[in-house]
């Protein structure tokens, strides 16, 4: 399984933003929509072996975490346009307003779950079943990594991870890189998927 964990520093944790202006009103949920697109969608196909965690930390009630489970998502639930994916996030955030137990996930649709899990919670859960990699331009070249089993990739948004986040990951995630430039999160995910496809993983 391929797992992508994205920490979104300013993404709104309430459905109080406009679909007509996602970049300007949502704390860059448009970035998360593009990342979901890159993680799951193929031309006339859908990746079932992918899990995505979106960890939202913006106003007004952080954190909120949305999990997309490729093996459970029904056909045509995820469409390629940002607006459709944003509607799924809105649906999840509205469902998340009813959550009282911080550690419990609530199913929104088949394969889509909302919770109050923190970034650290997600990392700890993932470490139980997968090898963890932190994607960063200063990391070890991805071509030199021997991937096997379940693999998880941690990414930041347009802001990146904080010093505290990086300190938390230091001894539990191997830092790897797809190149020395800073790329868009969605482009990094697409590259990693294509790279692993070519390895037959």
TrEMBL record:
EC code: 2.1.1.257
InterPro entries hit by this protein: Alpha/beta_knot_MTases (IPR029028), TrmY (IPR007158), tRNA_m1G_MTases_N (IPR029026)
Record's GO cellular component terms: cytoplasm
Residues where S-adenosyl-L-methionine binds: 135, 156
Keyword Methyltransferase set for record: yes
Molecular function terms from GO: S-adenosylmethionine-dependent methyltransferase activity; tRNA methyltransferase activity
SUPFAM superfamilies from the UniProt entry: alpha/beta knot (SSF75217)
Domain of life: Archaea
Cellular localisation: Cytoplasm
Pfam families hit by this protein: Methyltrn_RNA_2 (PF04013)
Catalytic activity: pseudouridine(54) in tRNA + S-adenosyl-L-methionine = N(1)-methylpseudouridine(54) in tRNA + S-adenosyl-L-homocysteine + H(+)
Keyword match Protein biosynthesis: no
Role played: Specifically catalyzes the N1-methylation of pseudouridine at position 54 (Psi54) in tRNAs.
Subunit-structure text: Homodimer.
UniProt-recorded name of the protein: tRNA (pseudouridine(54)-N(1))-methyltransferase
Organism (species): Thermococcus barophilus
Gene field: trmY
